TrEMBL record:
GO biological process: tetrahydrofolate metabolic process
Residue runs in coiled coils: none
Organism: Histidinibacterium lentulum
Protein name (record): Sarcosine oxidase subunit delta
Domain of life of the native organism: Bacteria
Gene3D superfamilies per the UniProt record, alphabetical: Folate-binding superfamily
GO molecular function, one term: sarcosine oxidase activity
Length: 105
């Protein structure tokens, strides 16, 4: 079972307490964007085999959204961090590099 630490309240939450929110760090496109950029925002996702950055919501707890970095193959969790970031923090990238030398996001 997947267990993630909610960075908002600090609770270790089982996946039954969480709601998935898809890929993290998407660039939101609006009325001024091109059709191609808006299509990519709506439909195109990385769906990697390996390290992935995801949005999760602590639905059965504090209700806050957060991001998690984990491996989609092994379910290894590299860390969680607040959703109010435009990219993964340095300590998360360092944790990934330590366990996946040569990884390139
Ligand atoms: Zn929480």
């Amino acid at each position: 079972m997947l267990t993630l630490r909610c960075p908002a309240c600090g609770v270790m939450a089982d996946e039954t307490e969480l709601a998935p929110g898809g890929e993290a760090h998407l660039t939101r496109e609006g009325p001024g964007s091109t059709d191609e950029a808006f299509e990519a925002y709506l439909f195109l996702r990385k769906n990697p085999r390996g390290v992935h950055f995801e949005r999760w919501r602590h639905a059965m707890g504090c209700g806050k959204w957060f991001h998690a970095a984990r491996c989609t193959v092994t379910l290894e969790v590299f860390g969680t961090y607040p959703a109010q970031t435009s990219g993964p923090p340095e300590e998360i990238l360092a944790a990934i590099e330590a366990r996946r030398p040569g990884w390139q996001g």
